[in-house]
Amino acid sequence: MTEKKAKGLVILAIGSIPLIMTLGNSMLIPILPRMETELGITTFQASLTITVFSITAAIAIPILGYMSDRFSRKSIIVPALTLYGIGGLLAGVAAAWFNSPYIWIMVGRALQGLGAAGTTPIAMALTGDLFKGGTQSKVLGIVEASNGFGKVLSPIVGSLLALLVWYGPFWGFPVFVLISLLLTVFFVKEKKKKKEAPPIGKYAKGLLSVFKHEGRWLFTAYLAGATCLFTIFGILFYLSDTLETQYNIDGVRKGLILAIPLLFMMITSFTTGSKIGKDLQRMKKLIVFGFLLMTASFATLIFFEKLWPFIAVLVVSSIGTGMVLPCLNSLITGSVGAERRGFVTSLYGSVRFLGVAAGPPIFEALMNWSRTGMFLATAGLTLLVGLLCLLLIHVKNKTGSKEEDSEAHTLFRKFQLTTE
Q1: Smaller CB count within 10 Å for the chain: N or C?
Q2: At CA 413, angle to CA 410 and CA 418, rounded to 5?
Q3: What's the CATH class of domain 3-187+199-418?
């Protein structure tokens, strides 16, 4: 096997991991209204199938991040994918054969959330370990594009599987997991660690040092990532409900419509990751501009109630999100060395999951309150976060010799990110 082909297979394996994670929530969004009818549950209870997955993942992610630093990325990813598949299988079995399946579906979803905790954040850390410089940014762009592709694909796949039986998406999880699992096991080869992992006390002290010196911009970046995921899943929840209740659109047609804004986000994520390289100034500009696009889109949506003009304006926010996320991925992944990268990227993944978890229930409450208020509040949030990024993320050029570069700042060989 040629080196180029081997590298391509590694990227394919890494890219499959966030795609699998994304299926965990997005594939269920089209079936939530049907789940309410079939199980006799409320809209809020249905939304909890998204929330329990995300909260479980958010809690477990930092723990698995530390374990990936302590041991290896692959030793966490493989069992995590396996648990993810088992959780989906349990939910499918419960829906098919149990008299009161809701509680068991929730248990299965919690197991899936635990498995998801060892997927995308660890894949980001693994990317930081295996690739450097511009290639690292490009692969992280692919990771985010894969995440976006999963969001595009999953409503369609979820709708198709639901044509067989409403709980079909639960049965689909183990199949998709198996593909990613095989790719990871056979094609991802980690570099041997040069030294033993530090004891937990020293490890924690190092993390405190990282957050002491770079905490302000780092937590701002975390908030930005959470906000992006919060708005994505909140709007998808609103759109899914609107398509079914106002337009009587369900099944594959609904999945295809839900996929439109996500397709633009995926394309933008891939393009952004390919173009940003190691240019931190460009990353910051794209983050701020992306949030301005999101704000303009959400604020304008109050004037559009017809479906296709609404979708067209919503696409603008998806493009903005596609600009923001790859830049955040590159900044956060490059902020620390390999010995603590797993925890830092996992904490980022954790707050992203919290954003996902908060989206459906909060938007459900906002929908009951006021459509106009919902969109204006969302626009206000993205504007505020965009301003925080403008004010708290500071970048400046700093050229240093190769010998002076530390492993903790591989992304910053020509640029150093500082806080004032």
Answers
A1: C
A2: 90
A3: mainly alpha
pLDDT (0 to 100) of residue 81:
93
Confidence of residue 339 (pLDDT cuts 50, 70, 90): low
What integer best gives the mean pLDDT of the chain? 82
Place of tokens 């952004």: 272
Tell me the domain boundaries of the chain: 3-187+199-418
Q: What is the pTM assigned to this prediction? A: 0.73
**Cβ 347 vs Cβ 221: under 8 Å:** no
Measured in degrees and rounded to the nearest 5, phi and psi for residue 415 equal -135, 145
Of 18-32, 38-52, 96-110, 294-308, the poorest mean pLDDT is in 18-32
